[in-house]
Structures are given as structure tokens and as C-alpha cells.
Amino acid sequence: MVGSIMGVVHNGYSNGSVGVQNCNGVEEKLDCLRRLIGKGDGDPLRIVSVGAGAWGSVFAALLQDTYGQFRDKIQIRIWRRAGRAVDRATAEHLFEVINSREDVLRRLIRRCAYLKYVEARLGDRTLFADEILKDGFCLNMIDTPLCPLKVVTNLQEAVWDADIVVNGLPSTETREIFEEISKYWKERITVPIIISLSKGIEAALEPVPHIITPTKMINQATRVPMENILYLGGPNIASEIYNKEYANARICGAEKWRKALAKFLRQPHFIVWDNSDLVTHEVMGGLKNVYAIGAGMVAALTNESATSKSVYFAHCTSEMIFITHLLAEEPEKLAGPLLADTYVTLLKGRNAWYGQMLAKGQLRPDMGDSISGKGMIQVYFVMFHVLVSSKLICYVPDS
């Protein structure tokens, strides 16, 4: 193939909302998106989720559950690195989860996969994260079995011809992995669509101090135009969404694709709205994780004081309004899923747990940056000192 992804008009469509409004059934929604992307008969829509954390795995599983039956029209895969071993304690817990769910147990027996979990529990073999993901188990979310997933461990194989790439990577890994991906896209003629689930920011000093969000990292790494890069976020606890608890989210970005994708992703229990304000939603998606760490600290250090937690939440929302005004001059955009995303993360989630453990002295810098069952933890010790210096909390170390 010849050409470059730079400056290419994707299939001649200037507005992703064209022809979307009348697509209501599951197969109709799939057909609508296929037409917009320009897929012909016999050419499946190829979607790959890059990164297999809790939310990335659940997102891929939701698509597989909804559209996987149409095998001639869509291909859904997930990429994760090979070689991550499952420790003995996790293997034992995984075995307990399997045997507590008759549907999962029967599925594994039908797939002739049950015996390896028995052997892993006994210590007779080692399981690997990519191996169990194929059976529907995310290492970061063992208690919530997913549907079986098509797992690819070779990054080039996963992405080279993908029509839609879902970024399920941490923000700290997004730039590095998409720089690698860009090597496989040098001769692409069509422009892929990228949906980023990542939350976090980078700081840059040149030419003037500014922040770089994950969608911008992807743009810089791949040269895919920003109109083809979107952000999806909302008040989403991954395990609860997969268990069909009612939730909503916003997909943000250029109008070219966001309305079509909102329609495609929407489900009865997972309502997806669309919004043009990419920067505000993405920045707040990162900040709320930091706020959640502070919320966990406040909860632990005040013995779950409702008053203290409400004061802390008021400080957070005031700061969010100020930052939103700087970014978009429209603080009212904090309404709906954006503010709810902050609220649910303060209530429950990995980052609030980190904050609680930090305040209780059960997490320390010498434990490293990866906590078993919880994943990556970075810059959170700095957050503790920020809260103390601001006198929002008072910490007296053990003597």
C-alpha cells in the first residue's frame, strides 16, 4: 500500500451523524457504522482494544456480548502483553470464583479449560494473564467474570488493519505504545478511528507550560488527525457496568464520528451521550482520580466523617469549576456525567482505596508502583503531602 494517514479524508464523510438516526436495532446500528466507515460485504469491521485493564477489558467484553454474534460483519479483539504470570494466591481465588458461578464453570468445562485452573490452584502449573483473559478473566477484576475474548499478544497483528482502536492503556503508557503502533501504520491509506478511555495528563514546558492529554499524546505519536480521536468517560465502575448496573458516559470529540459512535456504543443499561468539549472532559477525567485519592485519605483520617468528606468534595468541585473556566470558559459543562464521574470515583474505586491505604500507612513507596490486584500507583505519595500542606487534613505520624 502507498500513502500516509496524514491529511486523508476518511471515506469522504464530513459528518459522522449522517444516516445514524434511524438505526435502532443491534444489527442495524452495526450496519450503520459499517456504512459510515465504508465497509463492504465480506469485510468485517475490525475493532481492537489496546490494553487489558479492568475498563479496557470490560469495554471489549461489552462489544463482544452485543455484537459478537455477527461474525461476518465485525471482529472484536483485545491486545495485552504476554508473559504476566498469575501468582498462586490469585489462582486460588480465581478457582473459588469459577466454582461459585455455575454458568462460568459449565463454560470452562465445555471449552476443556477447567482442568488448568484446578492445576493452578494446586500449584502444578502457572497461569498467565493473556491466557485467562481468553477465558474471560481480567487480572485486575478477578471477581467479575467476562465473556471469552479473542486475545492477541502481538501488537502489530492486533492494530495494523484495525478500523477502530480503543485505548485502554494507562496514560503513563499511552505515548510509548502508540509510538510503537505508528510504525505499523506508516503505509495505511485509510485513517483509523481511536477511542481513548485513558485518564491522566502529562506536563510540558515548551514552548510555554501546558498539559498534554492522552488524545493529544496519541495524535503526536501517530499523526492521526484529532478529528478521528475521541475520549469516552463517565461515572463508570467497570465491574458494575458489566453486571448491567445502570450507567452513562459521554463520548467527546469532533462531530465527524462522535454521534455515530454514541449510537453504536449505547445499550439499555449503558447510555452514551456525545459532547464536543474534548479537552474539559479529558482533563477532568484525570483530575478526578487525584481527587479520589484525597477522598480516601480524608475518609480514613476522619473515621468516615460525612462533614469532612463533604467539605473536601466542595473544595474539589470549586477547583474543577475554576479549571473548567480556564479551559473552556463554561463551568456549567461540569453538569451530568462529568461531575458524576468525579462523585462515583470518590465514593468507590481503586484510587479511593489507594488513598485509604496511604492514610493508614499500609502503602509505602518501597512497595513499588504496582499493587497486587489493584494495578499501577504513581504520584500518590506526593498527593498526600499536598493535602497536608494545604491543611485540608492533619497527619500525625506514628512515633
From TrEMBL:
<dbReference type="Pfam" id="PF07479">
    <property type="entry name" value="NAD_Gly3P_dh_C"/>
</dbReference>
<feature type="active site" description="Proton acceptor">
    <location>
        <position position="288"/>
    </location>
</feature>
<dbReference type="InterPro" id="IPR006109">
    <property type="entry name" value="G3P_DH_NAD-dep_C"/>
</dbReference>
<comment type="similarity">
    <text>Belongs to the NAD-dependent glycerol-3-phosphate dehydrogenase family.</text>
</comment>
<dbReference type="GO" id="GO:0005975">
    <property type="term" value="P:carbohydrate metabolic process"/>
</dbReference>
<dbReference type="Pfam" id="PF01210">
    <property type="entry name" value="NAD_Gly3P_dh_N"/>
</dbReference>
<keyword id="KW-0520">NAD</keyword>
<keyword id="KW-0560">Oxidoreductase</keyword>
<protein>
    <recommendedName>
        <fullName>Glycerol-3-phosphate dehydrogenase [NAD(+)]</fullName>
        <ecNumber>1.1.1.8</ecNumber>
    </recommendedName>
</protein>
<feature type="binding site">
    <location>
        <position position="238"/>
    </location>
    <ligand>
        <name>NAD(+)</name>
    </ligand>
</feature>
<dbReference type="GO" id="GO:0005829">
    <property type="term" value="C:cytosol"/>
</dbReference>
<dbReference type="InterPro" id="IPR013328">
    <property type="entry name" value="6PGD_dom2"/>
</dbReference>
<feature type="binding site">
    <location>
        <begin position="51"/>
        <end position="56"/>
    </location>
    <ligand>
        <name>NAD(+)</name>
    </ligand>
</feature>
<dbReference type="InterPro" id="IPR008927">
    <property type="entry name" value="6-PGluconate_DH-like_C_sf"/>
</dbReference>
<feature type="binding site">
    <location>
        <position position="199"/>
    </location>
    <ligand>
        <name>substrate</name>
    </ligand>
</feature>
<dbReference type="GO" id="GO:0051287">
    <property type="term" value="F:NAD binding"/>
</dbReference>
<dbReference type="InterPro" id="IPR011128">
    <property type="entry name" value="G3P_DH_NAD-dep_N"/>
</dbReference>
<dbReference type="GO" id="GO:0046168">
    <property type="term" value="P:glycerol-3-phosphate catabolic process"/>
</dbReference>
<feature type="domain" description="Glycerol-3-phosphate dehydrogenase NAD-dependent N-terminal">
    <location>
        <begin position="149"/>
        <end position="250"/>
    </location>
</feature>
<dbReference type="InterPro" id="IPR006168">
    <property type="entry name" value="G3P_DH_NAD-dep"/>
</dbReference>
<feature type="domain" description="Glycerol-3-phosphate dehydrogenase NAD-dependent C-terminal">
    <location>
        <begin position="277"/>
        <end position="363"/>
    </location>
</feature>
<feature type="binding site">
    <location>
        <begin position="350"/>
        <end position="351"/>
    </location>
    <ligand>
        <name>substrate</name>
    </ligand>
</feature>
<feature type="binding site">
    <location>
        <position position="350"/>
    </location>
    <ligand>
        <name>NAD(+)</name>
    </ligand>
</feature>
<dbReference type="GO" id="GO:0141152">
    <property type="term" value="F:glycerol-3-phosphate dehydrogenase (NAD+) activity"/>
</dbReference>
<dbReference type="InterPro" id="IPR036291">
    <property type="entry name" value="NAD(P)-bd_dom_sf"/>
</dbReference>
